[in-house]
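User: Hi! I'm working on a homework problem where we have to compare a predicted structure to a textbook description. Could you give me the structure for the chain below?
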Amino acid sequence: MSRPEELRNNGVVKYVGEAPQEELATGERSTRNRVARSILDHGPSTAADIAQRVGLTQAAVRRHLDALVSDDVVEAREQRVYGARTRGRPAKVFALTDCGRDAFDQSYDKLAVDALRWIADTAGDEALVAFARARMAAQSDAYRAVIEAADPEARTEALAKALSADGYAATARSAPGAQQGEQLCQHHCPVAHVAEQFPQLCEAETEFFSSLLGTHVQRLATLAHGDGVCTTFVPRSSPTAPQTTHSASASTAGRNPA
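Assistant: Happy to help. Predicted structure tokens:
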């Protein structure tokens, strides 16, 4: 899920959804972050527990909880009771959803970087390249089915839609100027922070695109290298059989255009 505000490494939840201007001015977003953070730190909690921890009235906390539930950051559930159940309805508690938990920085990038560095140090760069290619190959069947179902002239667009479904916010458009082809643009990359240190991921992805589309492609820019968007040039040509060898299509992966 794409979010307009992404605050990393500061323990603040990323806000889901657009906020009206008056909400920003009154600090509603910051307070909502505190409510979500309180649940992260202490586990499923009642509105009364949260109100005591963050110093708000229960009515104010419930208003923020309603908004967080609406944004799929928090969910309400019955409080789990251990031992004999007392009379009356169980208290309602609020817990983070998977979406809400993912909104906090959980050091996944650091874990991935450490794992890839261990692979490179232990087994060499060849093993790292093999991992990157295997990662893309694991997704090949689903992507290839989408590509093969599309008309030849619409395959780049079909690939963009498949990438968007996986969180890459991809688009396809005609290449500017005299270039005869299309540009596949990825406006988001879930592994960009890892790819900054391991461009083999970008290179394997470019090879993957070349294989799927059956033509030589060229990576012009990447988010991992500091560009505003990952851009891959796809020449306009008749599709050929899927490539079985790794061509020079990834020669500029992870680099700015010359």
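For your comparison, note the following. Residues 108-123 form the longest helix (16 residues). Residues 77 and 135 are 37 Å apart (CA to CA). Good luck with the assignment!
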